[in-house]
Fold this sequence. Notes:
Elements: H1 2-34, H2 37-40, H3 46-55, H4 57-82, H5 85-91, H6 96-144, E1 150-154, E2 157-160, E3 163-164, E4 170-177, E5 183-197, E6 200-214, E7 221-231, H7 252-256, H8 263-267, H9 269-281, H10 285-297, H11 308-334, H12 339-361, H13 369-397
Antiparallel strand pairs: 1-2, 2-4, 3-4, 4-5, 5-6, 6-7
Helix pairs in contact: 1-4, 1-6, 3-6, 4-6, 4-10, 4-11, 6-10, 9-11, 9-12, 10-11, 10-12, 11-12
Amino acid sequence: MxxxxxxxxxxxxxxxxxxxxxxGGIVWIALALKQLNVVTSQGQDGWLLLKMTxxxxxxxxAIIAPFAMLIAIIHTLNRLNGDSELIVLTASGATSWTxxxxxIALALLxxxxxxxxxxxxxxxxxxxxxxxxxxxxxxLLTQVIQPGRFSTAETGLTFHIRERTANGDLRGLIIxxxxxxxxxxxxxxELGQIVKxxxxxxxxxxxxxxxxxxxxxxxxxxxxxxxxxxxxxxxDDGEPTKIDYKPRERxxxxxxxxxxxxxxxxxxxxxxxxxxxxxFANPLYPIAFVLxxxxxxxxxxxxxxxxxxxxxxxxxxxAGCRLAGLAVNNxxxxxxxxxxxxxxxxxxxxxxxxxxxxxxxxxxxxPSRFEAVRDGLASALQFIRxxxxxxxxxxxxxxxxxxxxxxx
Length: 408
């Protein structure tokens, strides 16, 4: 039935786009409010704020898209049931897979999109976002920061200069970095210069000291230097020449075959392993969510039947599977033995949902066991609820006992 295929696909796709746009807009507003200090306190324009917040979206859309798919499918199936369209299709001889095919086709498109974002879109956007952050720090040092005033580039990172010369050199430079609670450090230099090269932007300091203090409260370590360079893109690690990209900022080939001298990989092997397998496991959830929704609310029901239980069950089951996947992803970072479980969760959920779809499609002579148990519990609760009222009514109808005769 190509007409039915196009109709169901169009209904689900329009709902998906609307829900995805709504959720993406909410996430974008939250990111914009978080980065508002880029405009208010760091002298940047609104266009840079728009670019930075937009580049942070792909990192979150990979998780939001399967849930948007779930909500759209449940809404579409519930609407088809509410308008009795599923009943008409069933009466005309259509099976459950008649409605399932366009929904699964839409889920495959979402799977391809999520895979593209995981392997290409997210690393590209995060790397470009890092470049904009470096630009903000560079502009803060060269243009925005005022001599004699303390300026904060981000929480825990503060800059101060005594004066700025005509050629852009920074005199009396102080940098306080307390972002790492394990180790706080401060840089004091008589002269600071911004140097741009092909491999990054560097702050070159001359004639200064580095003060480092750990959380144990030991005496501060004082290191004197004549010339010291800091890569503004990797200011956390103080790496002078090389940027150590985080696992989410790396492309697939960099996760599978890292360089032998990659210090970040050797220091965080578990995080690299978890990120690699999460990128392959995450695209399985749109298909699993569609099958869960079909098993929960994909059967034709009359308007007199309660469909709320199926909607709630489908959403809770899908959300539970995704939360379990995120929890297992953390375990994968600790031990590779949990890697098969990361893929087993969406695959098992899909298989169980398909079994339920096939079983629900078979005609039954009476209610299922689940429905019988549910109806029995409802009857028991109704009986318990009306017992006190029945007892009170019987007491009111009972005639009063005759009073005893007076003794003469």
